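Field guide to reading this record: the first block holds the primary sequence, the second block holds the structure written as discrete tokens, and the final block holds curator observations. Each block starts with its own label. This record concerns Glycoside hydrolase family 1 protein, catalogued under organism Ruoffia tabacinasalis.

BLOCK 1 — SEQUENCE
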Amino acid sequence: MTETVFPKGFLWGGATAANQYEGAYNEDGKGLSVQDVMPNGITTPPTEEPTEDNLKLVGIDFYHRYKEDIKLFAEMGFKTYRTSIAWSRIFPKGDEAEPNEAGLAFYDAVFDECLKYGIEPLVTLSHYETPLHLAREYNGWASRDLIGFYERYVTTVFNRYKDKVKYWLTFNEINSVLHAPFMSGGISTPKEELSEQDLYQAVHHELVASASATKIAHEINPDFQIGCMVLAMPAYPMTPNPEDVLAARKFENNNFLFSDIHVRGEYPGYAKRLFKEKGIDIDFAEGDAELLKENTVDFISFSYYMSAAMAHNMEEYDSGEGNIMGGINNPYLESSEWGWQIDPVGLRIVLNDFWDRYQKPLFIVENGLGAKDVLVEGADGEMTVEDDYRINYLKQHLQQVGEAIKDGVDLMGYTTWGCIDLVSASTAQLSKRYGFIYVDRNDDGSGTLNRYKKKSFDWYKEVISTNGESLYK
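BLOCK 2 — STRUCTURE
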């Protein structure tokens, strides 16, 4: 008989983000977020006002269909469901003194629906949806003013949901602000006009805000578990040349910087050297150092989609089209339809790297395959998607997760990205589908919004019901 390596109580589930699936962008008092003026994701500059071609304005209409969707998640057996709160539903502009009650009531209803089925909510406080007013009037996280606005927001939701939500993440993929400053940090200054001083000062503001949120959370409910969330991407040297090894190490340090500060509470030596050599002088306000040091996170969560290859002479290689954070094509790996290189073993490497470095519980909160799915009639007459490619991708990655657990890694759970089809963050397409549930909506905005179970739906249901045992059959 096959035995599973996944621990008892492992939190299996799926992940989504408010801005990519809720829709109802201007209903019940919601204000605009940066996503409402990003009709093409990060591929073109934002527009002045929301435009009809922005698929995120409707998303998949979770706002009106959340009961139907959560019921489907429960049918799969989800133990946890990662979602986010749209900051601008709670504080429409971001700088108001009082919250929007209709927004608070909506998330009460969502969390109650999850709890009805025994699903533990895992909530991201800020997932690429800075209120547009804060971006336009304050230049987003480039301004220290945002720390106070964020503290007011998190205090409000921590108090409101203190008996409904235990697991919280402060910022989604916080390290992505270096690569997508408007989407990730609400920074209105065009990226090409931002200095590294500007960017790293904004990073500092977010890190201080994250530590402050951790402090506030533990004061409101000591049982809260607060995690950071980083975009994980292991880097391999292109050759055994020590210069290439060093290039890979420097690339990884750009990401470790964020988890190092969240977990250890201080800027690491390699960051101090980088800042000194580049003439970057981070402005620490009184109390910042103590706040960071005394309010470290309870666990580390991360997204994992791909690895990168690095060299000291990058210009001599072909750079991968899908590698948003940089890197060059690895000749040993296949790529998805969007150029993201597929590397299951890299997930085991990431898990071991984080565990060896921090000895803190880990949580994989995003992992999945974006692909063009085709809706067909199944053997039972119901419409479905024969997505064996997604099943294979997830199975290979989860088997490597099992290997990491055998290696001794303490892993809390695993939530696949886009457990139901939603609008892509990077390209704002619906045709880039990740879910176990097909949503009938297309890139031109057409479709019924009907939900259909893909083949992977029943596959993941069995994975969860056997606590991973079925992965080894």
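BLOCK 3 — OBSERVATIONS
The chain is about 35% helix and 15% strand.
The longest strand covers residues 225-232.
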